[in-house]
Amino acid sequence: MSKQPLALLDAERQALQTSTEADPLTREFSADGSECRIVFTACAPEAVEETIAAEKQRAQKAGYTLEWKVYGHDSLPKLPELLTQAGFEPDDRETVLALSVDQAMLPADEALDIRQVTDAQGFNDYEEIAHPLGRRNAAQERQRLAAERESHPGEISIHIAYVDGVPRACGRLYLRAGGHVAELAGGRTHPDFRRKGLFTALVASRVLEASDQGRELVLVDALPTSEPILTRLGFEPITWTMPFVFEPDENA
């Protein structure tokens, strides 16, 4: 794949900036303010440690979870080491995969029942899928996503696969207003319904929506468990990403 997907990825990361002031960091806050992701880092190498300390202090004071996303093609090779030294916890490394929408040829199984979330019941169904997977804070996630969709209508879409009317798998699609890129996230399937085509069908339904919305590229951060499936569907690796997480100390 050419360098164009990387350029589109970086443009999307920087476009998430909401501050009107000069800032080397691009932050993305959840609608309820409980989480912040730093998705782009452009500070000078000699300023990294000071910048990390300042962001930790800001998160501690405001009481939000801070996730710092590091990308393999960024120009700060010591950033992961410095984040770890500062007390951030590294999470799983993921491969960033890209699919050109105009080249997508994904199988569509019309026999499967795929629906988009449009109301409170849909969000309840989304939460229901999380419980057998042992996911913590499923109710909080449901509330956060509902708040995000209300505050940014059209920028988040949730697809759910039903089997005999029961929600069994789901996935999210992010469509930043005015962007050229769509992002897949949150793919999960009930353990008893894996290897039945639900994951693939949800990828296909979200890519189709991305196409309908005029997006050029679909991106996804893939764990080793899903990467082989996605590459068989035509996705190609362009870089890697790894989140580092800081949780504020409630007793501080």
CATH homologous superfamily title of the largest domain: Gcn5-related N-acetyltransferase (GNAT)
Instruction: Indicate the CATH architecture of the largest domain.
Output: 3-Layer(aba) Sandwich
Give the domain tally.
2
Task: Tell me the major beta sheet.
Answer: 11 strands, mixed
Shape: globular
Please state the structural category. alpha+beta
The average pLDDT value, as a whole number, equals 93
Strand content: 25-35%
Might you state the CATH topology name of the largest domain? Aminopeptidase
Using only C-alpha atoms, the radius of gyration works out to 18 Å
- Uncertain runs are none
Explain the layout of strands and helices.
Elements: H1 4-15, E1 25-29, E2 35-41, H2 48-62, E3 65-71, H3 79-85, E4 89-90, E5 94-100, E6 113-116, H4 120-130, H5 138-151, E7 156-163, E8 166-174, E9 181-189, H6 198-212, E10 217-222, H7 227-232, E11 236-246
Parallel strand pairs: 2-3, 9-10
Antiparallel strand pairs: 1-2, 3-11, 4-11, 5-10, 5-11, 6-7, 7-8, 8-9
Helix pairs in contact: 4-5
Pfam family, one: Acetyltransf_1
GO molecular function, one term: acyltransferase activity, transferring groups other than amino-acyl groups
InterPro entries: Acyl_CoA_acyltransferase, GNAT_dom
List the keywords.
globular; Putative acetyltransferase; single chain; transferase; Acyl_CoA_acyltransferase; 252 residues; Aminopeptidase; 11-stranded mixed β-sheet; alpha+beta; 11 strands; 2 domains; acyltransferase activity, transferring groups other than amino-acyl groups
